[in-house]
Specification:
Blueprint (H helix, E strand, L loop, with lengths): L1 H7 L3 E2 L6 E2 L2 H19 L3 E5 L8 H5 L3 H4 L2 E3 H9 L8 E5 L3 H8 L1 E3 L5 E5 L20 H11 L4 H20 L4
Helix pairs in contact: 2-7, 5-7, 7-8
Length: 181
């Protein structure tokens, strides 16, 4: 049904082994809108803060030992800054996890807070992990998720969004459109 829907909407050209995506930029914008409008909430969004009021830059070190056990990916503004290697103040982090979110909250000493800077989400799909260079032992979410999270939560971070798009997304979208990816 997904391939037929993409073809019906004009995003899939060719047949069988000669299929390729077209209109990748528009498809990407639709993905981000859908992520922001529907998917984030459907993934069980929980907002928290660190009980001890620690700096979010310390979060990857705190989850390093839990990452494999809980299936955690670092995302949001923190994940983007780690991937880009930027040294700036970080006000938001998203943790994508496969395990029990309440257990994770207890283990990381996270307290529910509707305005909290730490967002917990269930992981989505099997290809949500960044498979490229990892700057830190705790695995990062794919740049598609990093960009979508920042666009949804911190749209004023235009420079960060541009860097993620230019370095990690635009080349992928171009490769897919040209039939390389």
């Amino acid at each position: 049904p997904v391939l037929k829907d993409l073809q019906r909407r004009g995003f899939l050209a060719g047949t069988d082994e000669h299929r390729r995506l077209s209109g990748c930029s528009e498809l990407f914008l639709r993905w981000e809108l859908g992520y922001s409008d529907r998917l984030r909430e459907a993934l069980g969004l929980k907002r928290c803060r660190w009980q001890k009021g620690r700096n979010l830059k310390e979060l990857p070190a705190a989850i390093e030992r839990l990452a494999a056990e809980e299936g955690i990916l670092v995302g949001g503004e923190l994940g983007a800054c780690l991937l880009l290697g930027t040294e700036e103040d970080i006000g938001q982090a998203t943790l994508h996890c496969r395990g029990d979110m309440l257990r994770l909250m207890l283990r990381l000493e996270l307290v529910p807070d509707p305005e909290g800077p730490v967002h917990l989400l269930q992981r989505f799909g099997m290809n949500d992990r960044w498979r490229g260079w990892q700057p830190f032992p705790a695995p990062l979410a794919d740049p598609l998720f990093l960009h979508a999270e920042i666009a949804a939560v911190l749209p004023h971070r235009e420079e960060l969004l541009r860097q993620i798009y230019d370095r990690y997304l635009q080349p992928r979208l171009t490769d897919v459109q040209e039939g390389k990816g």
